[in-house]
Amino acid sequence: MVRREPSHLWMHLALIAFVLVTIYPVLWVLALAFSGQQSVGIIDLPADPSFFERLRAILPFPEHFSVKNFTEVWTEQSFGRWMLNSAVVSLLTTGLGVFLACTAAYAFSRFRFPGRNQGMLLFLVSQMFPGTLMLIPLFIIIVKWLGLGNTYFGLVIVYATTAIPFCVWMMKGYFDTIPIDIEESAVIDGASRQTIFFRIILPLAKPAIAITALFSFMTAWNEFILASVFMEAEANYTAPVGLRFFVGGFSAQWGYFAAGSVLVSLPVVLLFLYLQKYLISGLTAGSVK
Amino acid sequence: MAAIEFERVSKRYGDVEIIRNLNFGVKAGEFMVFVGPSGCGKSTTLRMIAGLETITGGNLSIGDRVVNDVHPKDRDIAMVFQSYALYPHMTVYDNIAFGLKIRKMPDAEVRKRVGEAAAILGLEPLLERKPKALSGGQRQRVALGRAIVRNPSVFLFDEPLSNLDAELRVQMRSEISQLQRRLSTTTVYVTHDQIEAMTMGHRIAVMRPLQADQPEASNLMQCGTPMELYDTPANVFVARFIGTPRMNMLPARIADDGSTVQLFDLNLPVSAQFAEVARNQRGRPVLLGIRSEHVGLAHEVDWNGTVAIEGTAEMVEPLGHEVIVHLMVNGENLIGRQRSHAGLPQPGDPYRMVINCEAMHLFDPATELRLQ
Ligand SMILES: Nc1ncnc2c1ncn2[C@@H]1O[C@H](COP(=O)(O)OP(=O)(O)OP(=O)(O)O)[C@@H](O)[C@H]1O
Ligand SMILES: [Mg+2]
Question: How far apart are the first and last CA of chain A?
Fold first, then answer.
């Protein structure tokens, strides 16, 4: 018997409304970026606007299309330099963070040692404090003691340590699902711990590594507060700090800000699209049973 | 090929003792089967041979070497896991070659050896596949291939067939047996399937979980050829564990003159084998063990000394080639077999069968050991 599904019309309308609310700001940023001007108002309203002209003013659609903001952000401002800084810091953070998280998580997953449970708990606890709470201690340690202010490495250390707790939990959860039999079988085949880790475990953990890498990258790429404190020289700004520079105290270059924001978000999107191919399930299928 | 020797080997996890006082050996080239109920420590013992579990007491030697502290990779053993434990991201070829490659064997030699192993196991058409794309039986063969390609001095198998369906199990059973006979590599094979044990092993070690009330007893109940275990079980546990249906075990008593065993109101003449035992145990209670194939119908059998026994039929299981009859005699269960399935009793009917007195086993009711 065929039964008619109840109409989903209302649900769809509600969902569409939510989607609009969500993407409206994004559309505005895009519109601003492509408007070729610096003011937030992208429409020139006449003195006595009609209803339709008012409506037109809140639509995120620029009157003139231009890529001027993009080219100028790149050529007249140091935005390229800042993106490069961000890229270096983020990639180093990702490399360091993923490597340390994998090795630590493997130890937590496979070895029994004193303080194992406490260690995992400590990682969790560290995640409960807001990052700004750490600002002053971190500044003292990194800038005052280690003298790593205005360096890539200072930020990399801080970002990697911030990202690692989550990554360790993530990776440990995944390692726990890899059957121990596979490793024992490799031990008997004559493999050392390192061989097992690099040639058996890591290839099987690709999905988790992809997530961990994305998370570490984004932690570093999007971070603003610490970067703005540690990086005082304009040449050392990271992209988020640089963005803020456009609309800081004396300037209101909203067009540059919007174009910069679009540029900043691109690498994350691209990275996600690239990593997506590793986010597949069933990598261990066929091994056991 | 290497012999394996257990000397007072024990294993405990914290306060829990799992293996106690294991004393026995596996001869070079022998196919030894460990069998026993779940949790008796078969896998633990096997993993101690492999070096995956440490030994808490005693000595374990492989060949001439005590291996208590030798790393698994230096023991020259190969192991096949119940779960196969293949490397899921590698092709069949790489799975088999992995152990050779990490031992830095030259490529040409690796190819040759993998080729040979694949030929023996019929894996040649599958070498480029990943384990995911194989059937259970094929995966099992890859696991075997991984073991034989290294040409180790000992094979260890932990219930390798328990994930396969019945038909495939029979086939793989004979393949593994033939492979072992051909390579004559010392083999230890763990199973809880006594048919596998009886058909594959040169010798069988029957194990039992440690008993709280027997602080001295080892896990090893008996070690011998399949027929030794079947014909002369050393204790009640082995007698009941080997053989299906289980051996009937009935409380009885040696007559005061030592010439018969008194079972209920029957007098069974003592078999020659137990004549001396019966003389020594005059008037003492015993456990009488009799296998179901030695309880039959008078007109179907031509045994020498038979005694008729009467009871009520409890359950009748016609299997086609034979019928298994469960009788209730004086509150004790007695299982017999007969060939004909004509005129079978209904549950509750009185039924009469005969016991083959020549085939009796006598055990001490206190120690549960075979009387001899
Ligand atoms: N890590 C451990 N800690 C404590 N006890 C354990 C541990 N590993 C195994 N055991 C115990 O050791 C006993 C023997 O286990 P083992 O795996 O050797 O049994 P088995 O004979 O192989 O059983 P099965 O037929 O079910 O596989 C079991 O009672 C089990 O609970
Ligand atoms: Mg087991």
Answer: 41
Q: How far apart are CA A245 and CA A231, in angstroms?
A: 13
| Ligand 1 atom closest to B192 (CA) | 25
Both tokens of residue B71?
A: 């790393």
Tell me the whole-structure pTM to 2 decimals: 0.83
Residue whose structure tokens are 């492509």: A34
Residues of B within 8 A of A284 (CB-CB) are 88
Quick check: A186 and B134 CB within 8 A? no
Nearest residue, CB atoms, B89 vs list A186, A188, A204: A204
Please list the residue range(s) of chain A that carry CATH number 1.10.3720.10: 78-288
Q: DSSP per residue over B179-229, as a string?
A: HHHHHT-EEEEEES-HHHHHHH-SEEEEE-PPPTT-TT--SEEEEE-HHHH
Quick one: angle between helices A116-126 and A79-110, nearest 10? Answer: 150
Q: Which pLDDT score is estimated for B108?
A: 94
Three-state DSSP at B168 gives helix
Peptide bond into A49 cis (omega under 30): no
Distance B41 CA to ligand 1 centre (A): 6
Low-confidence ranges of chain A (pLDDT < 70): 1-6, 42-45, 249, 282, 286, 289
Query: What is the per-residue burial (b if ≥16 Cβ within 10 Å, else e) of A109-120?
Result: bbeeeeeeeeeb
**Shortest CB distance from A286 goes to which of B77, B88, B98?**
B88
pLDDT digits (tens, 9 = 90+) for B272-303: 888 888 888 888 899 999 999 999 988 888 88
Matching CATH number, B4-240, of 3.40.50.150, 3.30.930.10, 2.40.50.140, 3.40.50.300: 3.40.50.300
Tell me the per-residue pLDDT of B206-265, one tens digit each, with 9 for 90 and over.
Answer: 999 998 888 888 999 999 999 999 999 999 999 999 988 899 999 998 888 888 888 888
Chain-centroid distance of CA A182 in Å reads 33
Q: Is the CB of B16 under 6 A from ligand 1?
A: yes
Tokens read off for A95: 């490399």
CATH number among 2.40.300.10, 1.10.3720.10, 2.40.50.140, 3.10.350.10, domain B247-363 = 2.40.50.140
Which listed ligand is nearest to B34 at the C-alpha?
1
Residue B342 in this model has a pLDDT that exceeds 90: no
Between CA B237 and CA B239 the distance in angstroms is: 5
**Could you tell me which of B282, B303, B284, B283 has the C-alpha nearest to residue B293?**
B303
Using left for φ > 0, alpha for ψ between -120 and 50, and beta otherwise, residue B184 falls in left
- Reduce the DSSP state of residue A91 to 3 states and report it: helix
CATH number for the region A78-288 comes to: 1.10.3720.10
Spatial separation of the C-alpha atoms in residues B99 and A188, rounded to whole Å:
8
pLDDT value of residue A2 = 56
CB B370 within 8 A of CB B233: yes
Whole-number Cα distances in Å, B366 to B180, B253, B276, B284, B287: 41, 13, 19, 11, 9
Q: Give me the residue label for tokens 């505005």.
A: A28
**Cis bond leading into A46, ω under 30°?**
no
